[in-house]
Write a sequence for this structure.
């Protein structure tokens, strides 16, 4: 059902059927409305109902959304989303295609993340970017606070900045960059064609007007930039509030698309200059952060790894530490490194802790 194209005749027929079910069958108005849509548009109704079932008060929100279609032409995501006036727990925006998309704001967004096992940490606490062991799903949630969520391993975030003092526009820069790579608008996946209208399946709208677009990404750790104001974040994303304005989460984790190969191939590592090989040493060197591929190459060149996955994990972590990789990012890189695939997470954590302890001594 193309809800944007719901005609006046269809609205009248649905309203009459709902009224008949209400008065003749004894159904309350909510049940009658849902039954009427199920009768006229069974396939689309089931799809919307399945989407809503995954969220708190999903049936109520779906009812409010469908009631809105009977009363007036639906709003688009560009014009603004419908609001659950009673609690604002979950609302739905009418994205250009498909069933309504879940929308979480403030504490509800944070609760959704923690309910799916994604650890968070207060943004302003000391060490908020330190070892991910300090992130927790049990962090007390406070209205108005800013948090960082740690999206584990299998997700990659495209951070499009907007509304900052430099006046940059990450959305426009992304489209220009993709076109320069031979990916004009017409050749983009449907979910990337109109970011400002809410076509992306799982994203956060930032208080300044930017976006965090989430992709499924089972590969090795990666970070960098695509274009000015367009960054790659694999470890964390802000959530909650900033300057009194909320981050708003749209969609759900399961609907995130797989990251396209052309985005991975175009990432530019954030480094001040071309990294040069240097053996492990506890002495502080001039900063020049290499890619994980170079960390691996240099570890192999040193022949420090020896036999076994434990030794290799430790040697990789030593090189990463000596080249100024944050401990949390080294841990994430090792968790997806195929050369130590199968090594228990606890042993990877021990190897990282030992390597960074040696670097500090």
């Amino acid at each position: 059902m193309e809800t944007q194209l719901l005609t006046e005749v269809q609205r009248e027929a649905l309203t009459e059927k709902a009224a008949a079910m209400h008065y003749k069958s004894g159904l309350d108005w909510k049940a009658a409305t849902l039954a009427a849509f199920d009768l006229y548009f069974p396939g689309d109704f089931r799809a919307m109902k399945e989407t809503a079932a995954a969220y708190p008060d999903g049936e109520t929100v779906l009812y409010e959304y469908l009631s809105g279609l009977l009363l007036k032409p639906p709003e688009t995501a560009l014009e603004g989303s419908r609001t659950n006036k009673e609690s604002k727990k979950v609302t739905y925006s009418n994205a250009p295609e498909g069933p309504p998309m879940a929308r979480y704001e403030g504490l509800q967004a944070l609760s959704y993340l923690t309910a799916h096992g994604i650890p968070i940490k207060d943004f302003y606490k000391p060490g908020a970017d330190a070892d991910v062991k300090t992130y927790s799903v049990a962090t007390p949630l406070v209205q108005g606070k800013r948090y960082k969520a740690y999206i584990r391993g299998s997700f990659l975030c495209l951070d499009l900045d907007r509304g900052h003092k430099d006046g940059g526009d990450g959305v426009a820069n992304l489209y220009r960059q993709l076109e320069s790579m031979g990916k004009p608008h017409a050749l983009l996946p449907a979910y990337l064609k109109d970011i400002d209208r809410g076509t992306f399946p799982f994203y956060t709208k930032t208080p300044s007007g930017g976006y965090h677009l989430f992709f499924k990404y089972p590969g090795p750790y990666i970070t960098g930039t695509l274009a000015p104001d367009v960054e790659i974040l694999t470890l964390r994303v802000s959530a909650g509030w900033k300057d009194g304005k909320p981050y708003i989460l749209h969609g759900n984790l399961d609907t995130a698309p797989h990251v396209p190969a052309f985005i991975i191939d175009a990432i530019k590592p954030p480094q001040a200059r071309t990294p040069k090989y240097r053996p492990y040493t506890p002495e502080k060197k001039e900063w020049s952060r290499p890619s994980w591929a170079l960390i691996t190459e240099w570890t192999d060149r040193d022949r420090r790894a020896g036999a076994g996955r434990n030794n290799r994990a430790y040697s990789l972590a030593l090189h990463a530490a000596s080249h100024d990789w944050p401990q949390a990012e080294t841990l994430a890189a090792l968790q997806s490194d195929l050369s130590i695939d199968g090594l228990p997470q606890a042993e990877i954590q021990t190897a990282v802790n030992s390597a960074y302890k040696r670097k500090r001594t």
About this structure: Residues 8-24 form the longest helix (17 residues). The chain has three domains: 3-102, 107-266, 292-360.
